[in-house]
Amino acid sequence: MALPSLAPHRSSAAPWRVLAAELDAWAAAGQVARFWWRDDDAVAPSPALDRLLALAGDAPLTLAVIPEGTGPELARRLAGVGSVTIAQHGIAHENHAPPGQKRIELGSGVPPELAAAALAGSHRRLAALFGEALLPVLVPPWNRIAPALIPLLPGCGFGGLSGFGPRRQRLVAPGLVQINTHADPVDWRARYCRPAAEIAAVLAGHLADQRLGRADAEEPAGFLTHHLLDDAAVEALAADLAALVAAHPAARWIGLAEALAL
Fold first, then answer.
1. 171-173 and 176-178: which strand pairing?
2. Letter string b/e over residues 93-126, b meaning 16 or more CB atoms within 10 A of that residue's CB
3. pLDDT tens, 114-147?
4. What is the SS3 assignment for 168?
5. CATH for 14-96+104-260, among 3.40.50.1970, 3.40.120.10, 3.20.20.370, 3.30.1330.40?
6. Could you report the per-residue pLDDT of 47-74, keeping only the tens digit for each?
């Protein structure tokens, strides 16, 4: 079901001026800002997925795929689409949180060893489906994971962990790189598309913090979408951002493998 756009996005250069100005500052400093794009909850081919792939164009795109929900149909749809890589989106995207608590699949309610074994099994299933397109990266559903599980991830075959918000450190466990997203156009509480100016400000703030030495300079700015829920307003916002990054000389899209140096 599409999200109702209570604050419809209108395609315009004006809302993006703050981000363009920050990119101009990067250009003046002789630097290039890096962006990466993650889309969550992929399971099967759909018109929404087709629109997402068209929006991304040549920009590298990482699909966070739910292992227990996907199958050969998605693998066939993505075969030969070289700009797309796959990350693992949990196990079945099921909420195991007690009533009244924030939703989490990979939480404290499941012993870490059992969760790690299930993750490893799901990773093998994705590898059989997607082959070299699969990266050893875990995207926890709802961007939440029990701290006790994190040190076990490298033993499950993972070299990367992706959540939301500026990372505190590059390595969250030996052999495990954190690479997060920073801007989500959906306001999940109000269930509407955030104004483009708000997304531009979030991304510009992340880049300014990097440029001025207030944040990890190696973490690219991450853009997060959910193609199965995104409506026309979100898609228009994504199209504007994709065009700005592609056109500005001090910006470029990079793939997740480059972001993680895998």
1. antiparallel
2. beebeeeeeeebbbbeebebeebbebbbebbebb
3. 999 999 999 999 999 999 999 999 999 999 999 9
4. coil
5. 3.20.20.370
6. 999 999 999 998 999 999 999 999 999 9
